[in-house]
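WARN retry 2 of 3 for item q-0093 after timeout on previous attempt; input resubmitted unchanged.
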Amino acid sequence: MADTMSGLTCKLLGEFGMPSLAKDGDIVIGGIFPVFNKQNHVNASFEKEPPVVTCKRFDSRAFRWTQVMIFAIKEINNDDSLLPNISLGYKIFDSCSSPTNTLRAALSLLSDTDGIKSRPTAQCQPPISALIADAGSSQSVALAGTFGPFNLPMVSYFSTCACLSDKSKYPTFFRTIPSDYHQAKALAFLVKRFGWEWIGTLQSDNDYGRNGLSAFIAEVRTLGVCIAFTGTVGRTYPQSKILKVVHMIKMSNVRVILAFTPEGDLYPVMKEMVRQNITGIQWIASEAWITASQPSTPEYFKSFGGTIGVSVRKMAIPKLRNFLTNISPYSNPGSVFFGTFWETLVGCRPFHHLGTSSSAVCRGDEVPDLTSVFFNVTQLRVSYNVYKAVYAIAHAIHELIFCNQSSPREMCLTVLQISPKLVTAQLRKVKFLNEFGEMVFFDSNGDFPPSYDIINWQLKHGEVQHVTVGHFSTSANAAYKLFIQEENIIWSTGNVVPKAVCSEVCPVGTRRAPIKGRPSCCFDCLPCADGTITNHSGALDCTPCPEEYWSNEERSSCVLKYIEVLSFQDTLGIILTAMSLFGASLTLATTVIFLVFRHTPLVRANNAELSALLLLSLFLCFLCPLAFIAEPTAWSCMLRHTAFGVTFALCISCVLGKTLVVITAFRATLPGATTFGPVQQRIIVYSCTGIQVLICILWLSITPPYPQKRHNNIKIFVECNTGSDTAFYAVLGYIGFLAGICLVVAFLARKLPDNFNEAKFITFSMLVFCAVWITFIPAYVSSPGKYTVAVEIFAILSSAFGLLVCIFAPKCFIIIFQPEKNTKKHMMGKVPKSDH
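OK item q-0093 returned
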């Protein structure tokens, strides 16, 4: 359409010669439907005018859509309440499921005035007020972009691409079918419901397939679903591409495949799947092919039986059946498409129908099979969307013309004043309850509210049935909800829900470990590390056990750790306790011996006061290990270390005093020598012990020892923390310092001329003492758990036994077994030697 020089009239420059169904009316509505779903290939060039486009593969379902539009317009024209005294007309073209042919139809609708009442040509307005189109999203994208500048409203009945919701690009686009945004959510809910995590996908090579699948993948990725592969199909693809897609399906380990394609694009793949007898795959269908009649045959059921998918809401239009059964090529011999329809329905070609088919010519008395799915008006889905689209446009026109509700017959606008722009504006506000009880309206994006049936392909009585097994919709708070009657579903595997996993769910006690280069759904199952568990299958990570717990062997639960402490019930504890009490008993026995024989020369010469203090300190040393056994407390921790330090300091101080007595006793025989009397002995003992007491007091005042729990893999060690390592080693170091002085002094006095020189025994006892404590340090540091305490106890007992045996055993032996040596003469060395 182009303006003339005057700018007052419009001139038609050319026609495409496309066949159409048309009826005049006061207001005309356009329609574009894929009556044929494949366009014959045309070699077009710029050298000459391209030939008229021809199409093939007649689609009886799409043809029924055209008849539903005609039926709805006829119904509205017979209704005195909706558009009284106003007739609606129509002009319907075939799109051949081709975007280019759809644009030809659109341009024909914008410019063709044949059979349509003339309008003021100065306005150059489109001859139609609204358009119902198209079935394919790619075609609708082309149409919406073309009609947008003309402000011509377009209502689609089967285009679901979410891209069409963009009002900045497509301001005049509306649809009576939910957007793929909602369909993608419905399919994602379906996949999640049945636990399918490893699926393949097919998409059509157009806007519907690419955008729809993209939305679906975005949804399922948040649910942890992985896409194994994505194949692309198209109705115009060569067989080589189809075979490549089928081979990919055949070689994959995927058992669940989603096909987001129109029926025509998937049909070549379906035929090849059946030809190669590929079965055992659970198909998920988008609404574009789930209710398609062409593949819904027993032939295809062996490969596609059990298919599940979503479909728009179904509705029954009882009055439509009579209209459809009256269709005949003989009553309207000039109408296009009717001859092909009749040939498809009854199997013969009407005598006036020109075509290249080899079908026989009809006699004229043939009767169609009224049981055909074409005449079934009880489960209309897309047809019902067409019906709603016609009524939505009619209600919008009604509101424009009869805007004064108090006087419905009073017109606000005349028919000639109705423009596409006004109809577009009114469609945004239209809202009415149709005769089937459904509220019809469009949201701000021109979309219809989402509501889907869940459909399952089942074979009943030799026919493929599309059985409704659930619903998907939004609730009052806009939340999505899925209802499934799972017991009514028949799967490709029978009554068992198909499995769709790349790797089996990891059992309890293991975790998922990703495999490099593979999707997240493909993983290995690794046992949990020590101290961690998983108490449910399919865990991503192992959970650490609490501090006082440890994992069991199966890594399925946390069990309380074994508390390890040296107790009186342990075998080791019993042995050490027995040794401690035995040593204390020996010390008491020695003390009793010394008390009984206190008047004998040997005992009297042995410095009774120092011996008594030494025996007392040894007795306490033997009792010290009892404080180390059993679970430590704050008091026992302070007691065990300080008691040990003070008693051993007292013990070594007494030994040092005895050593000094020996030396001073010898030196007392020399001229001018001083004696080491009792006062000096007490000073030595008490001062040396007092220093250790002072160290312990400082230790307990500043950082005293305290009980603590130390954990390893399977045990809890309850032990005493020294509080201050410096103080602890100061106590040990002071004892070692005293022992070293004592060893040196005793070593120097070992050869003094005395018949009973005690310095020899003291030297040997100090050697034992030092050897024990030198080996104690590395053993103490390296021993684990309760054995650390056992080593310390053993060191205490060994050194105490060494002192007791080395110093007192020889004396007791003489007192008990050699009393003849317990005389003053023998002690003074005046006993004559025996003659030989």
